[in-house]
UniProtKB/TrEMBL annotation:
UniProt xrefs under Pfam families: NiFeSe_Hases (PF00374)
Subcellular localization(s) per the UniProt record: Cell envelope
InterPro entries: Ni-dep_hyd_lsu, Ni-dep_hyd_lsu_Ni_BS, NiFe/NiFeSe_hydrgnase_LSU
Keywords for the protein's UniProt record, in alphabetical order: Iron, Magnesium, Metal-binding, Nickel
Similarity comment: Belongs to the [NiFe]/[NiFeSe] hydrogenase large subunit family.
Main location per the UniProt record: other
Protein name per Swiss-Prot or TrEMBL: [Ni/Fe] hydrogenase, group 1, large subunit
Annotated organism of origin: Saccharolobus shibatae
GO MF annotation: an example: ferredoxin hydrogenase activity
Entry cofactors: Ni(2+); Fe cation
Residues reported to bind Mg(2+): 50, 611
Binding site for Ni(2+): 69, 72, 605
Length: 632
């Protein structure tokens, strides 16, 4: 007990997430809410990849950082290969970029989203849970007809909940079946998953000697997945609408009262990406041209965006990089800014990092930019008033000196394109609008209603909540299917122009000095990799996993009306602070489903957010661990 009518709830570990995540919160049993913002989430693993990447050749990072996680390995590989493209001055030919888009649409988006929705998040909304902990909601679900019955085939909302029962429900089982098809389609291009072997700086190493067969096999799987995604989205749209209207769930899991997020690029135009340049300065300078409409399809889908407290600050990739800081005040790392030298004070085109601003003690903020950060682990006993997580503290700083925490994820990127990028091909009249085509033949495990053409429409709300994040994830699968069809058609046309020697990749360079940054929109957020190259060797490497910003611990690096008691608080903790416990059982029987629903809606991947652990006495010193993959 923490006080009268107060209990301390600890969920550690939070299951059905990748890695080890813990939550502790003090809850008032009368209001059923967190007391005095006392909710903390913490990562209990150290990653260490930034440490052992130093001194290696840059292309190695693509395949080593992929091993950060067994779930989102392709996410890291894609961000790393883009950092390499820039630093080594080579970008793919259009066919190579289209193949990258095709593979990623399958191996992560179409594979990963349904798994978190139906297998990891779904059980929290299953009939088994709702019946026992939310009986009034279950009673209403039995009596509520499903609006999209003609597509997904479920008569009532209770039927959808039953379909989410683990191991038996049709949505749970369907997600397992579909992810096999999605991984197979991606592996045709990547060579393997989740650690794609074919991604290389300047292109992709896919064997196109049997190109016609590759495209045919890919399309065969894509047709079934197109029908499956219609079932997935329509079922979750019905379920979310019901929970909002009948179970008081509209604002559960709210992060920030006004939109506060970033979005990066994702699924770039093959034509535009192929023409970024052939040196790191030019590629960096031209990056924002990806937001321009291409002269031919496919177009770039997601675009750089910074939104702070409901205000659009920028639509520039360059601004998003210049403004990035990372602190370690509440994390198990040592301060580095006063004991190390900067690798660069500016970006490749001369902009001062962190706008040339300095902290109150005179320390230049550019020392906290990832190009200058040094990872120095410093494990100590957890203390929620000091250091309590292995996740560091990503923050943004603006030209006016304000600093704040922020959110990333499917809701954020879809909100960004719907509200601020009307030229994105998935936007119409301020809504996400994607037409999924007719499918003439489907397997027996899919309902017949999934065969017809269906236009998915969704207007992302101006708030990130448990359900808006879940719906954003569902709609994002439609984006992946759209991208897959568009790039398949484009790639096939490019391939047919020169079947004997199709061009996918340009040779990379070996610079004496360069920097690179790769940002990519991925299932659970935005992944960002920064690299400094000296004499064709990695002098510094830092990266933010998709979950890093969202699970960020609170710290005092915040100023502005969005701060809470002078603190910047990460999205995970804010989502718990703004959640009411709705379980219809006495407090001593509370499980914390509403809290874990809020957190699981982000699809946490802690393994790649912060992972090796040594316990006890160490008697052996490792002199050699991994040989660089490009060394001969």
């Amino acid at each position: 007990m923490s006080g009268p009518n107060q209990i301390k709830m600890v969920v550690d570990p939070i299951t059905r997430v990748a890695g080890h995540l813990g939550l502790t919160a003090t809850v008032d049993t009368t209001s059923r809410r967190v007391v005095n913002n006392e909710a903390y989430t913490y990562v209990t693993m150290f990653r260490g990849f930034e440490v052992f990447l130093r001194g290696r050749q840059p292309p190695d990072a693509v395949h080593i950082t992929s091993r950060s996680c067994g779930v989102c390995g392709a996410a890291h590989a894609n961000a790393s290969v883009r950092a390499n493209d820039m630093a080594l001055g080579a970008v793919p030919y259009p066919l190579g970029q289209a193949l990258r888009n095709m593979a990623y649409a399958m191996t992560d988006m179409t594979y990963d989203h349904p798994i978190i929705l139906n297998v990891l998040e779904g059980p929290d909304f299953s009939a088994q849970v709702i019946q026992n902990y939310y009986p009034s909601c279950w009673q209403a679900a039995q009596q509520t007809k499903a609006s999209y019955f003609d597509i997904h085939g479920f008569s009532t909302i209770a039927d959808i909940m039953a379909a989410l029962n683990p191991f038996q429900g049709s949505l749970w089982v369907g997600a397992v079946r579909a992810q096999i098809l999605a991984r197979e389609a991606g592996v045709l291009i990547y060579g393997r998953h989740s650690h794609p072997s074919m991604l290389i700086p300047g292109g992709i190493g896919t064997d196109l000697s049997v190109g016609e067969s590759l495209f045919t096999e890919y399309m065969y799987r894509l047709t079934t997945l197109t029908a499956w995604v219609k079932v997935l989205i329509s079922a979750w749209m019905d379920l979310a609408e019901f929970l909002i209207e009948n179970c008081n769930y509209q604002y559960q899991g709210l992060t920030y009262s006004k939109p506060t997020y970033i979005s990066g690029y994702g699924f770039e135009s093959p034509e535009l990406y192929s023409n970024l340049g052939d040196d790191y300065e030019t590629i960096y300078q031209n990056y924002d041209s990806l937001a321009q409409k291409a002269s031919e399809e496919p177009q770039t889908i997601f675009r750089a965006t910074i939104v702070r407290n409901g205000e659009l600050l920028s639509k520039s990739f360059i601004d998003l990089n210049v403004a990035q800081l990372e602190f370690a005040n509440s994390s198990f790392y040592q301060e580095w800014a006063k004991s190390t030298s900067p690798f660069t004070e500016t970006d490749p085109i001369g902009n001062k990092l962190a706008w040339g601003l300095a902290a109150s003690d005179g320390t230049p903020y550019y020392m906290y930019h990832p190009w200058n950060k040094t990872t120095i682990p410093n494990p100590t006993a957890p203390n929620f008033l000091e250091k309590y997580s292995w996740d560091a503290e990503p923050r943004l700083i603006w030209k006016d000196g304000t600093i704040w925490a922020y959110e990333t994820g499917p809701w954020a990127r879809l909100h960004a394109v719907a509200h601020y990028h009307p030229d994105s091909p998935i936007v119409s009249s301020g809504k996400i609008s994607i037409t999924l085509p007719t499918i003439n033949e489907i397997p027996s495990w899919l309902p017949s209603g999934s065969m017809g053409e269906w236009t998915v429409e969704w207007k992302p709300p101006d708030y990130s909540t448990t359900l808006s994040r879940i719906l954003g994830r569902a709609v994002d699968t439609a984006v992946a299917i759209y991208v897959a069809w568009e790039n398949l058609e484009f790639a096939l046309q490019e391939y047919m122009k020169n079947q004997t020697s199709p061009k996918t990749s340009r040779p990379w360079k070996q610079p004496s000095f360069s920097v690179g940054i790769g940002q990519y929109e991925v299932p659970r957020g935005t992944v960002r990799h920064w690299m400094v190259v000296k004499d064709y060797t990695i002098a510094n490497y830092q990266y933010h996993a998709p979950t890093t910003a969202n699970v960020s611990p609170r710290d005092n690096n915040c100023n502005g009306p969005w701060c809470i008691n002078g603190q910047g608080i990460g999205a995970f903790e804010m989502s718990v602070i703004n959640t009411e416990i709705m379980e219809e059982v006495p407090p001593d029987q509370w499980v914390g489903y509403d809290f874990t629903r809020a957190i699981r809606s982000f699809d946490p991947c802690l393994v790649c957010a912060a992972h090796f652990e040594i316990k006890g006495k160490v008697n052996k010193k490792l002199e050699h661990i991994i040989t660089p993959v490009c060394n001969t």
